[in-house]
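Quick one, T. Sequence first:
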Amino acid sequence: MRKFLIALAAIVLMTSAPAFAHCGACGTDEAHNHDVEAASADIVGVASSAGTFNTLIAAATAAGLVDTLQSVGPYTVFAPTDEAFAKLPEGMVDSLLADPEMLKQVLLYHVVPGTVLANEVVGLSSATTAQGSDIAITVSGGTVMINNATVVKTDVMASNGVIHVIDTVIVPSA
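Structure tokens:
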């Protein structure tokens, strides 16, 4: 599995958009609307078509969360990229995949019920996740952190919520 993740990371292109650019869908500071395009795709569809969330989609499938993330919602997902999963310690992904309940708890820790757009996130110091625990939100020098993860892209709209891309998998405290 580790070799698979390394191979995925090698072929995945990360966006170089500044954190909290106005348009999270394309990473520019220009005001324009991608909602018409995104309105037909749910969170799973948007993440799948991006090509940078293959591990997240595989994990959501293994944890039985795909149907939930395709439901009405709305949801805000702080979505770790394939590269974020590749940064996990050796064997952790395999360990999580072998324990679907623990995997589910880790993934739900990345989901906040409701739609929380970037301009709202920056005004928060924490948010309660679908897992039940709070995540810490800090803003410093234009960089937004969710626990120890940096938000690298924002406001990627889906028909049932919004995705904010993060560079690190966040794990709830025991």
